[in-house]
Amino acid sequence: MRRKIQGSRILITGASSGIGRALAQKAAAAGARLAVVSRSADKLADLQSSLPMGTEVCPIVADVTRDEDRLRLLRTAADRYDGLDVLVNNAGVASFGHFSTSSEAIVRQIMETNFFAPAELMRSAIPILTQGNQPAIVNVSSMTGRRGMPAWSEYSASKFALCGLTESLRGELARFDIDILLIIPGLTRSGLHDNMLRNEGRMKIEFDKGQRPEVVADTILTSLKSNRTEVVVGWEARWILWFHRWLPRFTEWRIQRQVKKLYAGI
Ligand SMILES: NC(=O)c1ccc[n+]([C@@H]2O[C@H](COP(=O)([O-])OP(=O)(O)OC[C@H]3O[C@@H](n4cnc5c(N)ncnc54)[C@H](OP(=O)(O)O)[C@@H]3O)[C@@H](O)[C@H]2O)c1
Fold first, then answer.
1. Ordered domains of the chain (ranges, CATH)
2. Beta bridge partners of 60
3. Residue 243: what pLDDT?
C-alpha cells in the first residue's frame, strides 16, 4: 500500500518543537493539510510562518493532558478540514534521575502526557478517522520503550505502555481499516532535554550529538507512505536494541556495571 501525503489531513501533537516541528515542515512540503498542536501559541505561530506559502495549517493551542482540550483539538481539526486522515501522537515529556529519589507527581505527569493523552486521543479519534482516507495513527515512542533504561524509569515505563497499547490496537483497529504505526527514535537533538521535569541523572547524555529531528521526521513520513508497522530510528537505538535482543544478559551486566560505577560511594 502507498499512502498519499499530498492533500492528507494530518494532526500532529507537540508540533511546536523538535520532531513534531520538523514533521510539520516536511509534511507541509509534501502537500499535507495540517492541524498542529502544542501549549505554546507563540511557537505555533513561528512554525506557521516557517511553512511554505499556501500551506493549509490550523494551529491549536491545547494541553493534551486535559480531557476538554483533547476533545476540542480533535473537533477543531475535523471541523476545519471536514475530517481527519492521520493522527500523530508526538507530544511528550521526559525526566532523568533515579526512581527512588523521584516523586509520584513526576511519574503521574509523565504517564499523563506520554501515555494517557495519546490513549484517549486515539479512542476519541476512531470515529473521525474511520471516515478518513487511508486513515492512520502514528505513535512516537522511544528506544527506552523497548529497553528500559536506568534514570529514565518513568519515561521508559510510559513509552513501554504506549508500545503495548499500539500493538494491541493494531488488531482492534484493523476492523475499521485504521493503520497504526510505532516510531522508536533513539537520541535526538530537540527541546526534550531543556523541558525535562527533572534532570539529575549522573550519566552524561550528549543530546547535542543525537540525530537531527529532521531524520526522525523523514522516517515518519516514509513509514506513513509505505505503511511500516514499527521503525527504529538511529544507529545507536538499533545497536542497543540488537544487543538487548541477542545478548540480554551481557547488556544487563554492562548497564548495571555502569550504574554502580556512576553511583559508587553515594
Ligand atoms: N529527543 C529524543 O531524544 C527523543 C528520543 C525518543 C523519543 N522521543 C519522543 O519524541 C517526541 C517529541 O519530542 P522531542 O524530542 O521533539 O521533544 P521537544 O522538542 O521537547 O518537543 C516536545 C513537544 O511536545 C509538546 N508538549 C509537551 N507536553 C505537552 C502537553 N501537555 N500538551 C501539548 N503539547 C505538549 C511540546 O510543546 P509545548 O511545550 O509548546 O506544549 C513540544 O512541542 C516525544 O514523545 C519524545 O518522548 C524523543
1. 9-235 (3.40.50.720)
2. 37
3. 97
